[in-house]
Structures are given as C-alpha cells and as structure tokens.
Write a structure and sequence with these properties.
This protein has helices at 27-48, 59-65, 68-85, 96-106, 109-121, 169-172, 176-183, 189-193, and strands at residues 127-133, 139-145, 156-162. It has 197 residues and is mainly α. The relative contact order is 0.17. Bound molecules: manganese (II) ion. Manganese (II) ion binds next to helix 1.
Length: 197
Amino acid sequence: MKDIMPVNGQFAMPTLGYDNLGDVISKETLGFHYGKHLKAYVDNLNKALPGSGLEGLSLTEVVKKAEGGMFNNAGQVLNHTMYFEQFSNSPKAMSPKLTALLERDFGSVEAFKKEFEQKGATLFGSGWVWLSMDKECKLVITQQRNAENPVTMGLQPLLTFDVWEHAYYLDWQNRRADHLAALWQIVDWAIVEGRLC
Ligand code: MN
C-alpha cells in the first residue's frame, strides 16, 4: 500500500473517480459520507496535528502512534481513504494471482466473500471488516471497532467494508447484510491487489 504523506503539514481528502455508485451507494449517501463525515475527520486531524509531535509523519505512522481523539480521527481518515478509493463504476476483475491467494487461504473466492460478509454483518455496533495480509503473507479477515485499522496489529490492509450505519442507512436502512452483499459489484480488484506488499 502506498502510504499517504501530509502536504504543508495537512492531510488531504482522497480524490474520487465517481460521484455515485449506482444502486449500491447513492449520490446522497456519498454527499454525507464523503462530503461531511470524512471531511470532518480530515479537518479534525489537521487541527490536532500542530504541536502533537506527530507532524510530518505518514498517515499510517500517525495511526500507529496516536491516541484518543487524535487516533480516532487519523484512523477514520485512513479507513475512509482506503474505502472510497477501492470502488469504481467500471471495476477491474480479480486477477488470477489474487484469486489463487484467496483460494489458498479460504478455499474459494465465494467462501472468502461469505465469511467477509458474515463478519461485517455480525460486528456489533460501529466498525469495519477488513481483508489483510499478515507477516507470513497469509490473508486474514478481521473485525475492527470504531476507528481501528489493521496496521496497528502489524497487518497489511487490502480491502474494507464500512459497517458504521452512516455508510448505508440512507440507501439500505437496517439491511446491513444486503448492503454488504451488494458492495462486491463495485470493488475494483486492481486497486485491492495494488495494496499487496
Ligand atoms: Mn464511514
């Protein structure tokens, strides 16, 4: 994964290549989720950076070192940047290389997707479900609460679904599992694979 550096001491919003994602994530949801929720996390992080001792570090390093409110905002900037950047209206298919890795570690791509959706659907409260690569290059699925990111556990994060209600409630109301199942339609696997070490 390419780490994100601050420019003039400030982190920027990710640039999106879309303004809606069809029936899966509406323009209205993006307006709130990207335009308001993520914007607030970015602004809060940038306000907290001066004098924190973490100035000039990459976003991943800030997430690894920060605590309290600083960690919450930095974690949510990293989480949402990875989340929004992995989607596309013309997503690239999964390569034979990533397919083989998922088959090796989960039995099949379908079995991986089923476990990923199940772990997202059963995460109680707010958080994220992640696919990561561990230090032995094995693929693992983790449930992370609130602003947590797998980098704090020494994992290399590859793919994430946001299960905070703000990610899906306008479009899907309480149907979190249906929303998670629909997200596969817009995952750009070339972006995901680009995060492999
Ligand atoms: Mn979110």
